[in-house]
Design goal:
It is built from five helices and five strands, in the order βααβαβαββα. The chain is α/β, with parallel strands linked by helices. It has a five-stranded parallel beta sheet, sandwiched between helices. Helix 4 (about 85-90) links the parallel strand 3 (about 70-75) and strand 4 (about 95-100). It is globular, with a radius of gyration of 14 Å. Bound molecules: 1,3,4-trihydroxy-5-OXO-cyclohexanecarboxylic acid.
Length: about 140
């Protein structure tokens, strides 16, 4: 696995100032830098996209068919209701891992459901920035 698409969903551009009691003060730039470091050490190339728009995330998943070996995704709130995002992941057939900064199963009931997880290899939730690094490691395991 040498090429990986990293997708960050809605509102994750606000990390650092967004609900720090829930998400901490880590920024999206911090997360991307940590992912780039880890990817570099593993000989992996990343393409990274954050979008607040469902269609942009879906387009990126479709385009990944041409070059990516896998997808690491934090779908944000789309996790809980976007059948379109779920169908896009299923349609391209690329291995995907879902990650969350917060422990979604310990939060409000509406966050306990992920419509994305069933089309992913697995889900990592609750470890902050480490969720992404664990997710990357999980994705590259054969
Ligand atoms: C999140 C959890 C979601 O429920 C929420 O809507 C987010 C962030 C997380 O990383 O913990 O935007 O995906």
């Amino acid at each position: 696995m040498t090429n990986i698409l990293i997708l960050h969903g809605p509102n994750l551009n606000l990390l650092g100032t967004r609900e720090p009691g829930v998400y901490g003060t880590v920024t999206l730039a911090d997360i991307n830098a940590a992912l780039e470091r880890e990817a570099g050490a593993r000989g992996i190339t990343l393409r990274v996209l954050q979008s607040n728009h469902e269609g942009a995330l879906i387009d990126a998943i479709h385009e990944a068919r041409g070059w990516a070996d896998g997808i690491l995704i934090n779908p944000g709130a789309f996790t809980h209701y976007s059948y379109a995002l779920r169908d896009a992941i299923a349609a391209v057939g690329l291995p995907a891992v879902e990650v969350h900064l917060s422990h979604i199963h310990a939060r409000e009931p509406f966050r306990h459901t992920s419509v994305i997880a069933p089309v992913c290899r697995g889900q990592i939730s609750g470890f902050g920035l480490q969720s992404y690094l664990l997710g990357l490691a999980a994705l590259v395991v054969d």
